[in-house]
Amino acid sequence: FCVSLFSPSGKLVQIEYALAAVAAGAPSVGIKAANGVVLATEKKQKSILYDERSVHKVEPITKHIGLVYSGMGPDYRVLVHRARKLAQQYYLVYHEPIPTAQLVQRIASVMQEYTQSGYVPFRIVRLL
């Protein structure tokens, strides 16, 4: 397959699949308050064989940054791992926590790199 494959109607097929996966995901919300932020999401139970405790839809990245998503869990776990690694690398260089805006920009760059280098686009929408 090719990420840049267009359908007869002129749409990028893999992007359409990614958007469909996001639309099928559980809703997530972030609320900013004066003294903090609340991240929340719905857990959809996919099967009775599914261990609900093994799925974490809200993950800490640093002490002050969390991540929540809608879409595909495996894609989310890849981005959580990359976000934590980027935050650790920043801390090792500058000896202070990474600014949220900078982490958002770096994660967006990772997602763009995956899409442009021939991988399937990430099938998630995330709140950081």
Layout of helices and strands:
Layout: H1 13-24, E1 28-33, E2 36-41, E3 58-60, E4 66-71, H2 73-94, H3 100-116, E5 124-127
Antiparallel strand pairs: 1-2, 3-4, 4-5
Helix pairs in contact: 2-3
List keywords for this structure.
128 residues; alpha+beta; Glutamine Phosphoribosylpyrophosphate, subunit 1, domain 1; three-stranded antiparallel beta sheet; 40% helix; globular; Ntn_hydrolases_N; proteasome; PSA2 protein; Proteasome_alpha-type
Structure commentary:
The longest helix has 22 residues, at 73-94. The model has no long low-confidence stretch (mean pLDDT 84). This protein has helices at residues 13-24, 73-94, 100-116, and strands at residues 28-33, 36-41, 58-60, 66-71, 124-127. It has a single domain (13-127), classed as Aminohydrolase, N-terminal nucleophile (Ntn) domain (Glutamine Phosphoribosylpyrophosphate, subunit 1, domain 1, 4-Layer Sandwich), CATH 3.60.20. It has 3 helices and 5 strands; from the N terminus they run αββββααβ. α2 packs across α3 (100-116). Helices cover 40% and strands 20% of the residues. A 3-stranded antiparallel beta sheet has the order 3-4-5. β3 and β4 (66-71) form a beta hairpin. It is an alpha+beta fold.
